[in-house]
Amino acid sequence: GVLALGDPAYDGPHAIKRLPALPGTKAEAEAVGTTTLLGADATESGLVEAVRSQPRWRAIHLACHGIVDVENPMFSALAVTPDAEDDGYLRALEVMAARFPADLVVLSACETGRGRVYRTEGIMGLTSAFLFAGAPRVMCSLWKVDDDATRALMTKFYERWNDGTPAAEALKQAQAHVRGQAKWSAPYYWAAWVLWGLPD
Length: 200
Description:
By secondary structure, this protein is an alpha/beta fold. The protein contains seven helices and eleven strands. A hairpin with a 3-residue loop joins strand 8 and strand 9. Helix 1 packs parallel to helix 5.
């Protein structure tokens, strides 16, 4: 199955910093996930518990805000719902200390492919953390992405991938689908998405 997190509650009682809501991520998670964590349930502890509920997931899809720390890339984070136990920031360091057993992790958030370049390691950040944590391939973004165009792209990607199309080709077809719509034809809307890791 596909474990999908979306629409985190950024204005709850435990919020440290107000982040703008991402209403499109609810529909995105519902469209692609067979198991969903939404709103108040989209917490770090809820995600870890859900990941552990299966030996391996076909995909783990995280639709939320991405926060990049280029100077300290292991503090780059995905912003989920804060609660009494966690501050709502799933940092790269925490990802590396956990396990994310899935054939694919999709970081459906802004700038998740960014990080700091180390001569011996390449780009360190969220993407490399999920690879280290057990995902053989990670889809990520290179810049700030549009909410609606991303939802359309991700929905089309899973439609193709679930039909047996290899992940790289499914992404290519999803990008072509978004590019083919006049309002999203500019590269800003579809070209940010890249796939890291192994072929299918």
